[in-house]
Amino acid sequence: MTECLDDRDNNPEESVDDRVDDQDPGLQLVHLLRAVTVELDLFAGEFADRNGLHPTDVRALIHLLDAGRAGLTATPGWLSAQLGVNSASTTALIDRLERWELVRRERDPRDRRRVLLAVTDKAVALGWSFFGPLINEMVAAMHSFGEEDLAVVRRFLVAMRDVAAGGRRTQRDDPAGR
């Protein structure tokens, strides 16, 4: 990180001020998106604290719930890739969530060697008891927007998610950002 900052400081042609225009509407949206992300992360952190979970446990549950909604098959290997953690860490995480009855392992009926992961009804109820009021408020706030507005917001959020995922992959492939 220091090397990257030093390289930027030694480049007189491009200073931080030259690259950032606080009046740019796009940058203002980036700041708002970041603010929403911070608030949601704090909310998820509170959920984790209240329930004796690690933030990665919460992320794992979210990935598994999203997979279920999308009809995707969730395996330990898939979850490991989603979380960006090694297989040993994933196994410990699944063991922990299974012990708390939040996740269950099931044998794949088509391939008995393969293990599938599913979120339990207990986990869903626990999540709704905490996040339900927030989700309901967010959905209610969206009712003040028309269908066309919501379509634009959806396109925007999908694009931002894809950019962030691509940036994460780039950073993982070249941590120095070169």
Protein topology:
Blueprint: H1 2-9, H2 16-19, H3 25-50, H4 55-70, H5 76-83, H6 87-99, E1 103-107, E2 115-119, H7 121-142, H8 147-173
Antiparallel strand pairs: 1-2
Helix pairs in contact: 5-6
Region (Disordered): 1-22
InterPro entries: HTH_MarR-typ, MarR/SlyA-like, WH-like_DNA-bd_sf, WH_DNA-bd_sf
Biased composition (Basic and acidic residues): 1-11
Structural class: mainly alpha
State the shape: globular
- Strand residues, percent: 5-15%
Helical percentage: 55-70%
Give the topology string: H per helix, E per strand: HHHHHHEEHH
State the separation between the terminal residues, measured CA to CA. Answer: 12 Å
pLDDT < 50 stretches:
none
Q: Which whole number gives the mean pLDDT? A: 88
Strand tally, please? 2
Query: Can you list the strand order of the major beta sheet?
Result: 1-2
Q: Characterize the largest beta sheet: strand count, sense, and whether it forms a barrel.
A: 2 strands, antiparallel
The radius of gyration computed from the alpha-carbon positions, rounded to a whole number of angstroms, is 20 Å
Number of helices: 8
GO molecular function, one term: DNA-binding transcription factor activity
Biased composition (Basic and acidic residues): 1-11
Protein name: MarR family winged helix-turn-helix transcriptional regulator
Domain HTH marR-type: 26-162
